[in-house]
Amino acid sequence: MEQSPILQFSDPAPYPPVQVWGPDARYAKAMLSNIGSCNSEMSAVSLYFYNSIITRKTFKEAADCFQKIGMVEMYHLDLFGQLAWLLGADPRLWSYGRKTMSYWSPGCNKYPGQIVRLLDNAIRGENEAIEKYRQQAAWIKDPNIVDILNRVILDEECHIRIFHQLYQDLSE
Question: CB of 43 within 8 A of CB of 104?
């Protein structure tokens, strides 16, 4: 895989503007889940940060990919944080569950040490995020939020293609 500018680590489609119809507690809870649950952008950012460090000496190409994809995930984290705020929620790294707020923890992540397991784990996480965002897009009625969810899905699909390519390159 040839070294690429960061733009190739996200889909080329433009991001929609960050706006909402108005405050909505249910939608806000969904956005908080996207920033601070175990299946969240914060989990992806922290995991890819870790992965980039531990692969830097032996798998530089993978390390660079993890770092650049992590930067895209950080942008998603910002988008969902802005949405949560506009929807009326405090965008801390937390999520709502069982009538209480739970802070995000690095314990959410799995930390496999082998490159193949790192890539499998990353692909699994991207697929879980896509499924979550598709489910949210199906019940959320605010088209502004749905447009952002669908745009973020494009990036997550791009990340899966990159991780599959890295996996294939390691198999050769």
Answer: yes
E strands, 28-139, in order: 94-97, 100-103
Predicted TM-score (pTM) of this structure: 0.94
Instruction: Give me the tens of pLDDT residue by residue for the chain, a chain 172 residues long.
Output: 444 445 589 999 999 999 999 999 999 999 999 999 999 999 999 999 999 999 999 999 999 999 999 999 999 999 999 999 999 999 999 998 878 999 999 999 999 889 999 999 999 999 999 999 999 999 999 999 999 999 999 999 999 999 999 999 987 7
